[in-house]
């Protein structure tokens, strides 16, 4: 019970796959998001997956978060979305989650959040130079390296998801070609040299870093190992090869579970 007094409570806002909103309170945003996406969060979100974190507000205790939740649920959907897009406090609590910029990177002017007639979503617009600041997902790459019907997975030695299994890959550097980036990432994490053979698919997810959450666009390749020596390194504690029927239960990142499910389906189709 020791740390429960110091623990922050979050009022969080999710966007569901059907574009509706869901609100709840939690002490652990990342875990809660994962539960919702695994179908264990609530009956409402179970049939509306995937869900995305729109934003969250940090409260000192459970009762203040729950009181705020009651007030928040009375707002119109448009107002809820605008609060999160602007990063405004709610009920005296600071905003966290996908953090909007406060100042224009071009001129340093203050950014205002506006719902313009031509846009479906609120946009941040510079009050000084008028520039619109679009927010986009960050590009990531991952490799489905298959050898004798088994898939290479890595075990994470860092947060988020420390101890969980992951598909090798990571963030692209600015200007880096996806094929080059995935070869570099797999080399850094596993010591193996891989060759991408084809594009497997694209998956949107979110990545939490401290209090900030950003969207990621995850590009997956199918490929094979062409050299190198297997060695867990960088942000990885262990490597493993898994067949379609023997994948580990603890998988990092919501989208990776979809990738693996798609891979299993494809392997079964290919073997028919
Ligand atoms: Zn500006």
Question: What's this entry about, in short?
Answer:
This protein is α+β, with helices and mostly antiparallel strands.
Q: Output the CATH topology of the largest domain.
A: Nucleoside Triphosphate Pyrophosphohydrolase
Question: Shape, please?
Answer: globular
Number of strands: 14
Please bin the fraction of helical residues. Answer: 10-25%
Low-confidence stretches: 1-5
Q: Outline the biggest β-sheet.
A: 7 strands, mixed
Question: What structural class do the secondary elements suggest?
Answer: alpha+beta
Total domain count? 3
Give the N-to-C terminal Cα separation.
54 Å
CATH architecture annotation name of the largest domain: Alpha-Beta Complex
User: What is the average per-residue confidence, as pLDDT, rounded to a whole number?
Assistant: 89
The helix tally amounts to 6
Proportion of beta-strand residues: 35-45%
**CATH homologous superfamily annotation of the largest domain:** Nucleoside Triphosphate Pyrophosphohydrolase
Order of helices and strands: EEHHEHHEEEEEEEEHEEEH
**Gyration radius, in Å:** 21 Å
Bound molecules: zinc ion
CATH class of the largest domain: Alpha Beta
